[in-house]
Design brief:
Length: 223
């Protein structure tokens, strides 16, 4: 049976939230955001194996939260690096088997089972899958010469979990000549692979601003 791994990257701070704790530890209805993210993948497959990437300075607080909330889901722990590239690379080093890995932001608790299934099916077939949604707003391009309208039908908003054959993405990370990548699919693309798009889910937001917590609560606890 093909093994499945969820590599959860949770290295955020609370700066843009105006919070005193990292945003992945902020609570919705009494439970940290990060725990809802774990639960999203457990709904997809109760036997999925987790790797959690955290800054070393946050581990003590996370373990305290796990004890307080009786959170007993097993996971391997990797320490975050100086940037996202290094953090993901550290997490991938904890995966020693072949299979499919979902690389996911720890502050995206609203990813649906259907999105994860879309990613898994495409990655199993093609080696990778990138969940995207079309932009709802008009888009303009800007540079030093000014700005202009562009055709939004040619653009997509990128989400996670960015999903890969384990060995293919590990090899791409090893081959990378720099670390200035904004996401994992860019690392794979840089190694010469074609990226395969799948439908994401619109509510799969990355919790970044205070209003995002309100949105997340609405979806997690619909009236």
């Amino acid at each position: 049976m093909l093994k499945k791994f969820a590599l959860i990257v949770a290295g955020g701070s609370g700066n843009r939230m105006g919070a005193s704790v990292p945003k992945q530890f902020l609570e919705i209805e009494g439970k940290p955001v990060l725990m809802y993210t774990f639960e999203a993948f457990l709904r997809f497959d109760p036997n999925i194996e987790f790797v959690l990437v955290l800054p070393e300075t946050q581990v003590k607080h996370w373990k305290k939260l796990c004890k307080e909330h009786a959170f007993s889901t097993a996971y391997k722990l990797a320490f975050g690096g100086e940037n996202r590239f290094q953090s993901v690379k550290n997490g991938l080093a904890q995966i020693n088997d072949d299979g499919i890995v979902f690389i996911h932001d720890g502050v995206r608790p609203l990813v649906t089972k259907e999105t994860i299934e879309h990613c898994f099916s495409e990655a199993k077939k093609s080696g990778n899958a990138l969940p995207v949604v079309p932009p709802a707003e008009s888009i303009r391009y800007s540079d030093e010469h000014g700005n202009k309208s562009v055709d939004r039908s040619k653009y997509f908003l990128v989400q996670t979990p960015q999903t890969f054959d384990v060995q293919i993405i590990k090899e791409a990370y090893q081959k990378a000549q720099h670390e200035n990548f904004t996401d994992d699919s860019s690392v794979l693309e840089n190694a010469g692979h074609k990226i395969h798009l799948v439908n994401g889910n619109r509510e799969n937001i990355k919790i970044t601003w205070p209003q995002d917590l309100i949105i997340a609560k609405t979806f997690l606890f619909p009236q």
